[in-house]
Amino acid sequence: MIKVVTSAERHTSNREWIHSEFSFSFADYDDPSNAHFGSLLAHNENELKPKQGMHEHPHHDLEIVTYVVSGVLRHEDDIGNRADLQAGTVQTMSAGTGINHSETNPSEDDNVRFLQIWLLPKEPGLAPKWDAKYFPPEFRRNQLLPVASGTLDEGSMTVNEDATVYLSTLETGKELVYPQQEERRTHVFLLSGHVEISCSEGAFNLQPGDAARIRKSCDLKIKGTSSEGEAELVLIDLP
Fold first, then answer.
1. Phi, psi of 139 (to 5 degrees)
2. How far is residue 142's CA from residue 151's CA, in Å, rounded to a whole number?
3. FRET pair for 83, CA 20 to 30 Å: which of 9, 13, 73, 195?
4. Would you say 161 and 63 are in contact if contact means Cβ atoms under 8 Å apart?
5. What is the pLDDT of residues 82-139, one digit of tens each?
6. pTM value?
7. Cα(184)–Cα(228) distance, rounded to whole angstroms?
8. Beta strand 2-5 with 211-215: parallel, antiparallel or unpaired?
9. Closest CA to 67 of 82, 43, 88
């Protein structure tokens, strides 16, 4: 089964200092029928204005994966970490027994755009931890690059869940094949460009901001179809 969720179907939160698009129930968006997809609890696309931010706030028993699309995102937490994360950087944070952190835009002029993904951990009460890593664009061109995983050890960072987050940039005409397993879920989100995804039940075209939620076994094909430039996407494999 492939369910396409268009960009327009997301919930928009537009404040003076931040613009967000929520794919699942989050904050002031309460929809019990759209609370999660497997262990994926949140998939938020945020754009934070210069010198603005989310001040220190707590989390616990969450696996949080952040991908900086453009600009610079500053992270600070109460376990001693502080970093300015440039575009192309992935951050992982295991909230575990509890962590307080802030996310701000240190720039005087430029917005920062980032994705934030929340996953349920495989077990509660773990020790909190944080990590970040920059992934050069050429590492993900025309391939699926694992950047955060609880099962793979291919240069990716670790999350405490049986899930893997991949990044990819697809040139026009290039195709990826992902073997979707019967007992797994796959979430594909398109950041930019255009792709066609296809499975046994047909083909679907995705535009920026669109997502596909996929279940049941098939050889999932993802083909770049942009008229110019590349398509950038995030694929998450979930239980």
1. -70, -20
2. 22
3. 13
4. yes
5. 999 999 999 999 999 999 999 999 999 999 999 999 999 999 999 999 999 999 999 9
6. 0.96
7. 33
8. antiparallel
9. 88
What is d(CA 208, CA 189) in angstroms, rounded to the nearest whole number?
8
Q: With contact defined as beta carbons under 8 Å apart, do 56 and 102 qualify? A: yes
**In the block, which residue shows the tokens 């664009």?**
137
Amino acid identity of residue 125, one-letter, is G
**β-bridge pairing 145-149 and 157-158:** parallel
Has residue 17 got a pLDDT over 90? yes
Amino acid 222 reads I
Is the separation of the CB atoms in 43 and 187 below 8 Å? yes
Other CB atoms within 10 Å distance of the CB of residue 104: 18
Cα 65 off chain centre by: 7
Contact 219, 199 (CB under 8 A): yes
Per the structure block, which two tokens stand in for 82? 């502080």
Please tell me the distance from the alpha carbon of residue 174 to that of residue 224, in angstroms, as a whole number: 6
Residue 45, C-beta contacts closer than 8 angstroms, at least 6 positions apart = 10, 20, 21, 23, 113, 114, 115, 209
Q: What pLDDT, in 10s, does the model give residues 175-227?
A: 999 998 889 999 999 999 999 999 887 899 999 999 999 998 888 999 999 99
CA distance 24 to 231: 23
Edge-to-edge order in the sheet of strand 89-94: 11-14, 18-22, 40-48, 112-119, 63-70, 89-94, 129-134
> Which of 122, 125, 117 minimizes the C-alpha distance to 162?
122
Can you name the residues that pair with 50 across neighbouring β-strands?
none
Phi-psi region of 215 (alpha: psi -120 to 50; beta: other; left: phi over 0): beta
